[in-house]
Amino acid sequence: MTVLTLEGHGLTIDKMKSFLADAGSTIEISEGAYENVRRSRRIVEDIIEHEKTIYGITTGFGLFSDVRISKDRTQDLQVNLIRSHSCGVGRPFGEHTVLAMMVLRLNTLLKGHSGVTVALVDQLKTFINERIIPKVPEQGSLGASGDLAPLSHLAIALIGEGEVYHKGELRESKSVMESLGITPLTLEAKEGLALINGTQPMTAQGLINYIEAGKLMDDSVWIASLTHQALNGITDAFNEKVHTSRGYPEQVEVARQLRSYLEGSSLTTRQGEVRVQDGYSLRCIPQVHGASLQTLAYVKDKLEIEMNAANDNPLVFGEDEVISGGNFHGQPIAIAMDLLKIGTAEIANISERRIERLVNPSLNGDLPAFLSPEEGLQSGAMILQYSAASLVSENKTLAHPASVDSIPSSANQEDHVSMGTIGSRHARDIIDNMRNVLATELFIALTAVEIKGIDGLSPKTREKFDTYRGIVDFIGHDRNFSKDIKILSDALRVVD
């Protein structure tokens, strides 16, 4: 069983990946982190006791930041905030995404700059360990002032309101808490604001996007290797000298992987044996896939910074240092997600072009047109290419950068926003489309190499062939191919 200890720092994507992959995983909180929480809470309580004017503690929010709130109404202020901001719409985020949200939000609170109580962090810990997953609608955030609406739906569950998923059922939060003997949280001063001023929805979805995109970028190379052999591709283009002469490490690495996957194949050719050069979707795999790989390094860096960031407002630093700022602004993650959208969309783009080469009788050598078992009577893989083309065209619209958009809110007090959650959601959708396109290429390539002769496959790709042929059949007759694509797509997924 995975135990993830949270300290307010040191959280990594690999640690989160292990935590999310283990259904029985739990989190613990270090004693040092608890002391950070206690220390910052004492400062907040002193502010209330002496009725100092501090945003969000003794004032209203947004445009109402100049409205003073008496200390006997501070609890009402926090509950009203959560209730009024719970106005998200649309389908809910996936349960793994919301679980990650809670872990990331808890890690932020443990830094000791948020001024929350031990009771709040323990409530979050309980929800995480008991897998009480709030239902969080995924639309309605501008990505600055934090992801206010989504995080409010998370927060409202902690006080026994709203809906949660528990053991496969959607139920009222209060009902689940009663069944487990958990007392609804009473929000103290600043705690509502501390729960919702942050970037956890865009970051949690971004974290899962990164995990899925990384897996698919790895898979795309061996899938392309199957296609390359089915089309008697030329290996000279992957010569190490070609790629080191340009200098991009990711390009060099993809070329190395291709040489490794193709080593020992009798289906590949050398330049001049069948043709002098391959089309770009074969010849330029290292250049295109390598460029997409470059986006992952940037995205990982930004995600791991944000996963350990203080993105609350105001931030508590000491007795006389409670400072209002803008760390809730999601622009760093917004730009990272837009970059990831481009990188993953391009992998799908080039994959679809390889699909076209596999099915087009003008391009696929001596393979049957559309891999049809009976040309004319059966369509074979003809419309599979249509479906892939549809997905990559959809990706082109989704890849429009969300981060360059902004719209003023709160009577122009909040006059520039990141739209980072939109970018993160669209990146997820592009990655889902990319997975289906790669599954389609894999499905067609499995049949194509079988027609060419699987004994000619390289040892490494023969292993892949045997694995995936074990879960989908040869295109021996027309059938409902969507089932085959779903089986393969699910097999390429990391997080359910």
Radius of gyration: 26 Å
The second-level CATH architecture of the largest domain is Up-down Bundle
CATH H level, superfamily name of the largest domain:
Fumarase/aspartase (Central domain)
The number of helical runs is: 18
Q: What class, by secondary structure content?
A: mainly alpha
What is the average per-residue confidence, as pLDDT, rounded to a whole number?
Answer: 94
Write the CATH fold name of the largest domain. Fumarase C, Chain A, domain 2
Q: Please state how the strands of the largest beta sheet are arranged side by side.
A: 4-6-7
The helix/strand order is: EHEHHEHHEEHEEHHHHHHHEEHHHHH
Low-pLDDT segments: none
What percent of the residues sit in helical stretches (DSSP H or I)?
A: 40-55%
Modified residues (2,3-didehydroalanine (Ser)): 145
Subcellular location: Cytoplasm
Protein name: Histidine ammonia-lyase
Catalytic activity: L-histidine = trans-urocanate + NH4(+)
Question: Features of this protein?
Answer:
single chain, 496 residues, mainly alpha, Fumarase C, Chain B, domain 1, Fumarase C, Chain A, domain 2, 2 domains, three-stranded antiparallel sheet, two-stranded parallel sheet, 18 helices, 54% helix, 6% strand, elongated
